[in-house]
Design goal:
Dna Topoisomerase Vi A Subunit, Chain: A, domain 2; elongated; four-stranded antiparallel beta sheet; binds zinc ion; DNA primase DNAg catalytic core, N-terminal domain; DNA Primase, Chain A
């Protein structure tokens, strides 16, 4: 999309309009008038505007129309919209008021009309005040995950499967890992299914919905579930479009397990299991019949997960960069401290690249594995 030159004034006016599309006037005005009691869609309260210097004892002179977001102080005969109110309350100019309000609402700097749904779907910013809702319990989180995955599975998977196929991950592997996708045109339908199945408050606590009551998985619609004992307990999702940052989005909370750890359940003790970085590398190996579990980021291994690996011969195949090398060394120590050993393969590229660019990659990979295991055991 070509970027059209626009003046600063036009940019601010577009951003102001974007603010007005998403702002909740009730929440906004009550923040400044916490003791006011709305009657229907009106607020009649003591006026808090500093420059008016009200005594605080007279008649409530501030009237707010919560439907349209307009205020009026009868005592000083001054009024306007929410942005004007913000200017007066914080004693700032229009531009700064718009910028600060937009940031607070999670709106991007560029307020073009076509982006309004993306803006409304944007995940909540982590508030500096640390005021976060209570996280959802494990049982409800799993219920939300399963329902979300089922809703997405019912949609057209073509684009998601195409994305994976271009990375060498076939449809069968994707299905076994329960990777699901939904096209952007299905966004509202998936959102409505979730709204029908759970109270908004639970969806928000799980991070699936934002404070504006929208599904936050809007740009990130290729979903990778973390399954433990047959149940999805967490979901991380990727964008399939180029140029979208961040590329990943997840539910609230921390990564709860190794990715694909459930695949180890049926594996015989003493089997080789690869420890790799990310979903793509994990599924690349799975597509070639190698058992693999994935870390989210090179440094993501937690000590308490080692127990699930204890009965296998574990081979790390992390990225050949500084972070990957450092992590592999640290994990080697971690395994050793538990009386386990961690073998290590160093590829010239990450696992996915290696498999995509070498016709005999699977054979080479198996031979490399044999070599490092012999070394360790000999
Ligand atoms: Zn006033």
């Amino acid at each position: 999309m070509p970027v059209e030159p626009e003046s600063e004034r036009e940019r601010l006016l577009a951003l102001r309009d974007a603010i007005k599309r998403v702002i909740d006037y009730r929440t906004f005005y009550l923040r400044y008038c916490p003791h006011a009691h709305p009657t229907g869609n009106r607020l009649q309260t003591l006026c808090p505007i500093p420059a008016h210097a009200h005594s605080g004892r007279g008649h409530p002179s501030l009237s707010v129309d919560l439907t349209r977001g307009l205020f009026h102080c009868f005592s000083r005969d001054e009024g306007g919209d929410a942005i004007r109110f913000y200017e007066l309350m914080h004693e700032v100019k229009f531009g700064r008021a718009v910028g600060e309000l937009a940031r607070e609402l999670g709106l991007g700097g560029r307020g073009s009309r076509g982006r309004s749904l993306a803006q409304r779907a944007a995940p909540d910013e982590v508030s500096a005040s640390g005021h976060e809702p209570e996280p959802l319990g494990a049982e409800r989180m799993a219920a939300v995950c399963e329902t979300f995955l089922a809703a997405c599975r019912a949609e057209d998977q073509t684009e998601g499967l195409g994305y994976l196929a271009r990375r060498g991950i076939d449809a069968g592997t994707a299905r076994r890992a329960d990777v699901v996708y939904f096209p952007r045109r299905a966004y509202r339908r998936v959102m409505r299914k979730m709204q029908a199945a759970f109270p908004l408050e639970e969806l928000q606590r799980g991070g699936l919905f934002n404070a504006r009551a929208h599904l936050t998985f809007y740009r990130h619609r290729l979903l990778f579930p973390f399954r433990v004992e047959g149940r999805a307990i967490y979901v991380q999702a990727r964008t399939t479009a180029a140029g979208v940052e961040p590329r990943w989005h997840n539910m609230r909370g921390v990564v709860p397990s190794l990715y694909n750890v459930d695949a180890l359940n049926e594996l015989a003790s003493g089997s080789v299991v690869y420890l790799v970085e990310g979903f793509t590398d994990t599924l690349t190996l799975a597509a070639h019949d190698f058992a693999a579990v994935g870390l989210v980021g090179a440094g993501g291994l937690k000590e308490e997960w080692l127990a699930s690996l204890g009965r296998f011969r574990v081979v790390a195949a992390l990225d050949p960069d500084a972070a990957g090398r450092r992590a592999a060394e640290r994990y080697g120590e971690l395994f050793k401290a538990r009386g386990l050993s961690l073998a290590r393969i160093t590829l010239p590229a990450d696992v996915n690249d290696f498999f995509r660019h070498r016709p005999a990659a699977a054979l080479e990979f198996a031979l490399l594995t044999e070599a490092v295991l012999d070394e360790g055991e000999g």
